[in-house]
Amino acid sequence: MATITREYDAKTDAKKRITLRDSAYQHYHVAVYSDGRIVLEPRVLAKPFEISEKTLAMMDSSMENFKEGRVSAPIDLSAFED
């Protein structure tokens, strides 16, 4: 079970906002419960080293096109050689 490392009281401002002190993350998932509890969980918007399902589907489609010979003309990359 996680331990409490920091605890403080906060008051909402005129726009019903609360400021998190020394926040370690920029994005949070907020869960509001019927008993009034609010739980914030840190979120990373883009998971590093993970390829999305949409990208994988596009890659599969590209390989099918390649196998069937539906390809563009070769690209000249000689300008990038050392």
Folded structure, characterized:
This protein is an alpha+beta fold and 82 residues long. 18% of the residues lie in helices and 15% in strands. It has 1 helix and 2 strands. It has one helix at 53-67; strands spanning 27-32, 38-43. Strands 1-2 form a two-stranded antiparallel ribbon.
Could you list some keywords that capture this structure?
alpha+beta, 2 strands, 82 residues, two-stranded antiparallel sheet, elongated
Please outline what is shown here.
The chain is of the alpha+beta class.
Largest sheet entry: 2 strands, antiparallel
How many β-strand runs?
Answer: 2
Structural class category: alpha+beta
Average pLDDT score: 89
Give the strand line-up of the largest sheet. Answer: 1-2
The total of helices stands at 1
The coarse overall form would be: elongated
The oligomerization state is: single chain
The radius of gyration over CA amounts to 25 Å
Record the SSE blueprint.
Blueprint (H helix, E strand, L loop, with lengths): L26 E6 L5 E6 L9 H15 L15
Antiparallel strand pairs: 1-2
